[in-house]
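Appendix B, Record 12. Input sequence as logged:
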Amino acid sequence: PLVIWQTGSGTQSNMNVNEVIANRAQVLAGFKIGEGEAVIKANDDVNKSQSSNDTYPTGMHIAAYKAVVETTIPGVEKLRDTLKAKSEEFMNVVKIGRTHLMDATPLTLGQELSGYVAQLAYGIKAVRNTLAHLSELALGGTAVGTGLNTPAGYDVKVAEYIAEFTGHPFVTAPNKFEALASHDAIVETHGALKQLAVSLNKIANDIRMLASGPRSGIGEILIPENEPGSSIMPGKVNPTQCEALTMVCAQVIGNDVAIGVGGMQGHYELNVFKPLMAANFLQSARLLGDACLSFEEHCAAGIEPNHKRIKELVDNSLMLVTALNTKIGYYKAAEIAQTAHKNGTTL
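Logged structural output:
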């Protein structure tokens, strides 16, 4: 296999694959590699009706589509469903809300989790909305998009075969010039993956802060204690799953920058940052799917409310006074809250 740091069209990879296929044909025909005349030739036969300029972006779209549909979306859906179940389970657990990291009016733990569920649902929808463009294949455009050296109808037939072979709804790109010279479909779908990363980062951070403690933090929820958290502090347990997921999110967001830069490198009839874009996309798609499955199994599925701590914080909150606004007015309610805070009492 070749490294991704090669020509930006992926020509070395395409020619490498062509040579491997030709050599395999030579062996199957009963000859040794390099022995006698080639049974089939890498460029004349294997590469027939093709160019690196249309085969590589076709491979990019097939791999990207499969990674998103078979790995990313199932992983996110699994986490969404678990959080939805937890949201319904805790819908009557009243807790204090927070805005600007400061005490706010109450809500239920179930309502708080429902926001996470909605974020992931919208993220999945955003990804799915990009798949039609990603399903378009460049094959048949050959060198610059004109289809030079291809028989009539070749592009449609090969897309139909690929769709049948993979089980995914691939079609021939209606405009091969766009399919070769730009990779907006990759940029678009990865942008949706970045949206998911942004949402997941917020969710993981909220959960680890709500679980902070056990004595000196917020401590409103309990999360699974999966392993020792410190080599020096005995008994310490850390929110490792939350930290792992947020690191994945950082990587995906970084990959999105590289993919955006790569998408800009479409010079005239050919984008020349294909290997970079493909590698970063596939890493993001796999990381998100795998990280969501791990987070679901080792963290989200084990979330439980710390009822004692939740009640303590609600009872001690001054923002409960907000409910009096419509009865005694904002200023009088503020005076009551400030007095309670000054005297160190509850409302």
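The mean pLDDT is 96.
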